[in-house]
Model the fold of this input.
Amino acid sequence: MFKVFIFPNSVRKNQSNNPYLQEFAFVLDKQVNVTNYYKFNVNNDIVSLFINLFTDYHIINWPENIPNHRFGLVQYYLFKLVFNIRLFLGKKNIFILHNKTAHNIKTKKSFEALAFCIKKAHLIFTHSLEGVDFVKKNFNRTDVKYFPHPTYSNLDYKAQDIKYDIIIWGTIHLYKNVDGFIKYFNNEEFFKRYRLLVCGYCQNKELENSIFSEVIKNENITFINKRLCDEDIVNNINQSRFILFTYTEDSVLSSGSLIFSLPSEKQIIGPNVGSFKELSNNKIVSCYNSFEDIPKLIDKLKSNNKSNNLVSNYVSKYTWSNFGSFVIESFIK
Done:
């Protein structure tokens, strides 16, 4: 049986910091030996790469973040060393492209890490057609495998009384431009009677203060500044009419938060980029080019109910199980 190591090494049985890695490892482990699960329970990702040096396949995720970690430059060069040793040994390095650049800290080394994997990987997967075009245009590779971001079907979405008109949820980072939208919300006459819920942890104190300075101006805005479990997120979405994503950066290709929200069958509004744009072509998501487009979108959506069949068909088609089979058929069998 083939052995596969998934990087970063956040995949542990009954424990994961990222549901993407957890779900991915679970479906692969049914057909191959995912080594994250066995023997080596090491917290340091780079150490784990050396431990799994001779594993048949490495599947790399988010390498653009490595140079931005503590001792990032050292970690990046060690990452490249392992990658190149494996190439010499005839082992396969697989890359999953999630973003065009790092979201929060954009450095020369960060983009270099991304470019290195795109150029050197045996095979590339992406969850966005824009990712396919990005690699083709910038790196002249035409062998990228596309599969839409797998969906989450085990979430307890159900009808509840509506408490909020709009919800913005997820960890709050600068690139998501949550503070920018709240300022717009406060100054736009259209939103005077709308209730906004912003829920998610903000670690950046300057950004947190910027958000609070706007929130206190409007009693219709609720800000829950903490990490929420899946159950709390689902409950907040159940009580909301529209789900809004305020990303303005073009680094975004696919969004796990978007996919997490899909099974709710709520009206979703997001930027006209990556997976948001592709799902808008399928009439599942509504997209804006600027915040000024959002009021008109909301007016339109209030009188135009989304077909539940479109969402349910999408969710049932692009499952984690199907993605796992797609990956294995592409490079293992």
Q: What stands out?
A: The longest strand covers residues 92-97. The chain has two domains: 3-150+318-331, 164-317. Residues 12-17 have pLDDT under 50 and may be disordered. The first helix runs from residue 19 to 28.
